[in-house]
Specification:
4NH2But_aminotransferase_euk (chains A, B); homodimer; 4-aminobutyrate:2-oxoglutarate transaminase activity (chains A, B); pyridoxal phosphate binding (chains A, B); 4-stranded antiparallel β-sheet; aminotransferase (chains A, B); EC 2.6.1.19 (chains A, B)
């Protein structure tokens, strides 16, 4: 098994005493329940054997600190105060000595474990120090080794067919810069090519925020989609009113997203019909909306919106449709990317004949941006796609270290395997407690698994009391977003906790 | 003199051999011209004595590397390829052995020198390593010491009257999140207060990107302003068509910015009139624009737009006007903040009776966000102002180290003093070459100095050949944006270079 071999290779590094291991003290950590790792060797040999719950969460120490924090920082969305120096591997610690198995992982963004020794080494390198303290304006003054950092990092894992990158800071601006590239591409086509100069009218009207310089075009997104919360990205986000209320938005169109019924094998025809109708809706909007869409943006799995899936056939159909109408396809892999679905990029599951035009990334990459391949997506003049920092080389170096760790431990294949195990076991729980685990989804999608709960918020709260940190999505989904170093013995602890929650 | 005392204090730290000093080799650096430091002790004792220009820029090594980089990264806006490991203090190095005095400083964003030893130490700390590798979703899982990091860092330098912060990633999203806070505040007032629930119509229409949920309101900005390049911030940016062409924009209003005539003392009445007319234009737009402005955003000195100044009286008038009409005042200190104008925040020059409602920051802070004081600017419910990362604690730790360095070396006062010296000397050059240094501006504004050049682009190019890296702004301004550790002996090198440029 790949993960076993990988663990053996890991040992010499992870078991040595690194500076932060010396600081950590897990002597007090007692396993709530230790599942025997059944022959599996741990990626983090000195990880806690299981969760420790010492107090209600938040405990007294946390409460005091939260009160202090609230004076200067809005804590109303606070889920749990953490002590990251004490967090390790799959386990998040808090100031009260509680240590939880973390399958939420900072909203799906910690890739290879808290305080990962390999990342720790990268963080303390001279190259990282220089990147941190000598932050360049990348578009103007890139460092002499920036090409190398890109090629051995971000671009090494570029989706097939896409060999270029524009670097950004987080998911929202990654999407917005991709949208900007799409608008420039479309207008360039309308003008007749890259060599055609802007008209006087284009120039003058752009400075007045008026058409044609600021064109009456749109980005098409889907109902219940999430693509970020800045003004352009928020205009394509349709997951919850709380994200959108009181913020001006562009009058851009939203297409129906197919609402699949579960279990899939019992609803084949209905689901096919739903997907065909959704595609027809996309085509209708592309051809008739008063602000013509120049791109369609879609998540491989709608994540914030409730873990909504569609079939590979649907996505292939969308690729065909966008090609047919000369509209770009932007795949937002901010949450699905970097291994969690058992492929490095979730859209690899689709078997596309030609790649998406742009793929955006963030979260587990710990840096952000969009990939593209078509040279026409480079704007025809410099400074059109530009800003001071254009990303952060320090975070790009970290992504490189993450990629090395993923490759060294074969974590994408590992996640596919452990995801299969976890899905099958939850399926068993779902047959045992049919009202509690509804619409189980994510089969064959690594650990990117979710189900609906009739009392979701209570479910998530209860989870902490049995030692697990879990997140939700949409109105009633429980979403599992463990890290890529989540193993079978962690799955067993999680499964045990899930059963405890619904039994209580 | 404060800077002399400070330099003496610095010595024991900066002159020891740190790891990156050991890597640097300045043996080959020969001074083009060394100005005697006239008794002034250097902040960076082992900084080069002056620039070295060995090749045309870019030289052969750089050219080769740029060609390689261009295959994967758009290099058409590349100004100079840098070697940051070899850059030190005020000097930027390149792969060809050229070492330039840098008074552009990564578009005004390097605060306390390349490879600053104190920042280097902070970068290699265990706290930094943990912040880098255990990046939290700050709104959900802040670390137990986040309040302390804020209070000893970002909030320690909060503008007077503003004791809260929302953290962001860069200038653009700092401004956009401030705009979002403004829209939510305005709608809350219209609804009758924080306790009033959203109406069904608000909720439904927001999901359709329609009013009233997505309100028909605006942010008022000024002609030639620059506030960023994402969709909302770009709608308030009015500096150059190249930033705006082909990008859809909100139909938000722009007010006239007073175009002052120089020298100021010879155009007092004209300039007063221009400022009064600009204020009248603001009032007209606030009261009559079809999308009512809920906030006015303004830079203390319009930077990208050409280094355009207005008087303290103008800004006081703007504060009075916005108060009168119950419109928020957002001061965009992304480029002016953190010391360069001889005050920590440029708006301290204005003598305001009540503070701005929000102040945004980025660049020299090396992290970003907006400050506010009024508790009504915290949205009435959690998750309204939220995203996964909400900034970056690693960058917040760096800002803390920057603040400590600024305080230790008294760099704000130092910059006020060296700025006065520099301004006076350029004034002398301007009398000697009146057609070459036009509209000199920034008197009493630290080193935030600019002048217009009849052949600006040529001027900037020529600067490199005489050992200085300088930036431009607007159509014809040469803008000086040295770091806070720029001293009199650097000013002398710069002045000598300026004269060489115009003489050649």
């Amino acid at each position: 098994m790949a993960s076993l071999r990988a663990a053996a290779r890991l040992r010499p590094i992870a078991s040595r005493v690194t500076p932060f291991q010396a600081q950590r003290n897990y002597a007090a950590v007692a396993a709530v329940k230790t599942s025997e790792p059944s022959g599996e060797q741990p990626f983090f040999p000195d990880e806690p054997a299981g969760p420790t719950v010492k107090t209600a969460i938040p405990g007294p120490q946390s409460k005091k600190a939260i009160e202090e924090l609230h004076k200067v920082f809005d804590t109303r969305s606070l889920n749990m105060l953490a002590d990251y120096q004490k967090s390790y591997g799959n386990y998040i610690a808090d100031p009260d000595g509680n240590v939880l198995l973390d399958v939420y992982a900072q909203i799906a963004s910690i890739p290879v474990g808290y305080s990962n020794p390999a990342l720790h080494k990268a963080a303390l390198s001279e190259q990282m120090a220089s990147a941190l303290i000598n932050r360049p304006a990348l578009g103007n003054f890139p460092s002499h080794d920036w090409a190398d950092i890109l090629k051995t990092g971000i671009l090494k894992v570029a989706p097939k067919g896409l060999d270029q990158v524009f670097t950004a800071m987080a998911g929202s601006d990654a999407n917005e810069t991709a949208y900007k590239a799409a608008f420039m591409w479309r207008r360039q086509h309308e003008r007749g090519g890259a060599h055609v100069e802007f008209s006087e009218e284009d120039i003058t009207s752009s400075m007045l925020n008026q058409s044609p310089g600021a064109p009456q075009l749109s980005i098409l997104s889907f109902k219940t989609a999430f693509h970020g919360r800045l003004f352009g990205s928020l205009s394509t986000t349709r997951s919850k009113p709380i994200h959108k209320l009181d913020i001006p938005a562009f009058d851009w169109p939203q297409a129906t997203f197919p609402l699949l019924k579960y279990p899939l094998e019992e609803h084949i025809q209905e689901n096919q019909k739903a997907e065909q109708e959704a595609l027809a809706d996309v085509e209708r909007l592309i051809t008739t909306h008063h602000l013509p869409p120049c791109a369609v943006v879609i998540e491989p799995i709608q994540s914030e919106g409730g873990d909504n899936h569609a079939s590979p056939a649907f996505f292939r159909g969308l690729r065909t449709l966008t090609k047919k109408h000369n509209v770009l396809l932007i795949v937002d892999e901010v949450q699905t990317g970097v291994g969690a679905t058992g492929k490095f990029w979730a859209h690899e599951h689709w078997g596309l004949e030609s790649p998406p035009d742009m793929v955006t990334f963030s979260k587990k990459a710990q840096t952000a941006g969009y990939y593209f391949g078509n040279p026409e997506l480079r704007p025809n003049k410099p400074y059109r796609q530009f800003n001071t920092w254009m990303g952060d080389p320090a975070r790009a170096l970290l992504f490189r270290a993450i990629i090395e760790e993923i490759e060294r431990l074969d974590l994408v294949n590992h996640t596919a395997q452990v995801g299969n195990y976890l899905f099958n076991e939850i399926e068993k729980l779902a047959s045992k407690y049919p009202g509690e685990f509804m619409n189980l989804r994510g089969k064959g999608q690594g650990t990117f698994i979710a189900f609906d709960s009739p009392r979701r918020d209570e479910f998530l709260k209860k989870a902490k009391s049995v030692g697990v940190n879990i997140g939700g999505s949409g109105e009633r989904a429980v979403r599992l977003r463990p890290m890529l170093i989540f193993q079978k013995h962690h799955a067993d602890i999680l499964l045990d906790a899930l059963e405890k929650i619904v039994k209580s």
